[in-house]
What does this fold into?
Amino acid sequence: MSETLTASIVKSRSAIGKRLIGHDAVIIYVLIAVVIVSCLTVRYFASTLTVGFLLIQVIPILLLALPMALVIISGEIDLSVASIAGLTSAVMGVLWRDSGWDIVTVMVASVFVGVVCGAFNGFLITTLGLPSLAVTIGTLALFRGLALVVIGDQKVANFPKELNIFVLSKIGATGIPVVMIFVILIIAFFAILLHFTPFGRGLYALGYSTEAASFVGIRVGHAKFWLFIATGTVAGLVGVFLTLRLASAGPDNGTGMELSVIAAVLLGGVSIFGGKGSIPGVIGGVLLIGVLTYSLRLAKVPETALIIVTGSLLVISVVAPSVTAWAKERIRLSRVHKVVQGSSTLGSTHA
Amino acid sequence: MSTITEEKTGAMHSVRSFLRAREIPVAGALVALVIITTIINPRFLSPQSLKDLMLNATIVIILAVGQALVIITRNVDLSVGSILGLVAFGTGTLFDVFAGIPIPLVFLAGMVFGGVLGAINGLLVTAAKVPALVITLGTMYIYRGVLTSWAGSKQYFSGDNPREFGALSVDTVFGLPIITLVAIAVVIAVGFFMRAVRSGRDLYAIGSDPDAARLFGLAVSKRVLAAFVANGALVGLAGVLYTSRYNSVGALTGSGLELDVVAAVVVGGVAISGGTGTVVGAAIGAVLLSTITGALTATRVDKFWQQAIVGVLILSAIIVDRIVSVRNARKLRVSEARDV
It folds into this structure.
C-alpha cells in the first residue's frame, strides 16, 4: 500500500531533473563556483599559467583516481597505489642507471612492474579471498619497502633532458600540458569502460552485492582481478610520470598520495560502500581539491589551512548525503502519513 | 610480556585451546626473532639494548591496544597519528605555560584531550552512519591541519620539560622503564575488560554482526562511541608519554603513524573485518614490529629491508588468519552435520 503511494509521489521527478541535482552535479557546481570566485578575487588566478601549473600538479591524483573509483564502486579499496608508483619510480631509476637500455624500454619495463604489483594484489584478494583493506595495507608497506631495497636512499637524476621538457611542455599558448592529451585518453577509456560496457555496469552490481552479482552471471573474481591490474598499471604510469616530471627517481616518490586519491574519489560522490559513483563526479572531486588548494595557495592562505579544508570537504561530502537522506525520509514519511490518513477517511465515508 | 599472557590463558584454559589461540603464531614469531637475533649477535639481549627495545615498543603498544578496541567493532581510526601529535604538542605547551604543573594533571589533561578528539570521530561515525575509514581519514587531515596551524614552526624540546617528567622514560623499576610499565598496565586492564566485562564482550558481538547485535538489543551506537573515546584517551596517554620519551615535539609529530598502528593490530591477529582478536595479540604485534627494527640493526641486515619485511609480515598474518578461519568453518560444518 504505502509503496504504491510513495511511487506515485516519486514518479513526478524526471530522470534529467534527478541528474541535475545529483551528487556529481553538485560537485561540478561547487567546482565552477570556486573557479569563478577565484578568478574574481584571487590575483593572478585567471591566467594560462594557472591552467598549466594546476594541471601538472593534479595529473597524478587524477590518473590514480580513475581506477580507484572503479575499485571502490566494486566494493574494494586499494591503499597501495602510491607505493606502486614509488616502486615503479625506483625501478626506473635503477634500470636507467645500470641496464644500459634505451629510455623507452626502461619506461615500458617500469610500467610492467606496476602491472605485476597490481596482479599480486589481485591474486591475494580474489584467489585467496582476503580483505582488500588489509591486503593493501600490507602491500603498501611491502612495495614501498621494495622500492627502498631496489634503490636504497639514492636518487637517479640523469634522465634525458628532452623528456622532462616534453612532460612540462604546453599546447601552444593555452597553458594546457601536452601530457593532458594522454590523460584525456585514459579518462575516456575508464569513463566508457564504467558507463557504457557490460563489464562496467557489472561493477555497480558487484558493489551492491557480490552474491547477487554472481547469480546474474558476473564473474566476480575475474572482474576484481582485472580492476587491481588496472590500478597497478595506472600507478606504474604515474610512477613514470612523476619520475620524468621531477627528473629524479627516488624511493619516496608519491609517498602518502593514496589518502589524497581516496579523499578526492569519495568527495566525487563514490560511495565507500560500493555500488555508487561516476567518472565525471570523480574528475570534479579531483579538480575541486586541486583548484581550491591552488587558489588558496595563490591567495597566500597558509599551507596548514589547506589540509583542514581538504579534511572538512571530505567529512562534509560524506556526512551531507546521509543528513539529506534522513531529512528526505522524514518528509516522505510525513507525506505518506497524510495520504494514508486521507484515503482512510475517504474509505470510512464510503462505508 | 608474552609470559604474562601465557600464564593467564594457560591457567584459564586447557593446553589445547591455548595452542589454538590467535596470539600464538605472532608470539612464536616474536620469540623466534629474538632467539635468532641473539644467536647472531649476543649483545641483542644486553640490558641496555633490551631497555631500548622496550622503550621503542611502549608507544606503539598503547596505540595498538586502543586501535584494537575500535577495529574489533568493525571500525577503524586513521586519525591516531594526528591525535597523538596534538596531545604531544599540547603537553609541551602545558609545561611551557604552567611551569610547575603537577605531572598527574598533565596525564589527565592529555587523556581528556585525546578522548574529546576520539569522541568527535565516534559521534561522526555513529550519528552520520558513514564508515569510520572515511570519517577518520577526514579528521586525520583536519586534526593535522589544526596542529600545524597551532604549532607553526615551533618545537618543544625535552629540555623544556621538568626533569621528573623526562625521567619517566629513563628510570626503571625491576629493570622495566616506567613508561613501559604503564603500557603493560594498559594491556592488562583493557585485556581483562575485553575478556570478562559485559560491555567488552558486546564490542565483539557488534564487530561480528552489527545488525544482529542491534536486534539482540545491544546499544550499538553507544558502545562504538565508547570504543572511539577509549581509543582517543589511550592515544592521549601515548601522546603524553611520547613527549616524555622523545627529544622534540612539533607540527609533524606522529604523522604516518596510523598505518603502522593498524599494521601492528592486524599482525597481532585482530581481523580488519571486526569481531575477532584480542588486545594482547595486538600488543604482541606492536612489540614484534618494533623489535624487527632493532633486530635488523643488530644483525647488520641492510636497513632498507625493514619495511619490506613489515609488509611480508602483515600479509602472512592475514593469510594465516584466513587459513584458520576456513579450517574452523569446515570443522563446524562437519560437527554440525554429525549432529543432524
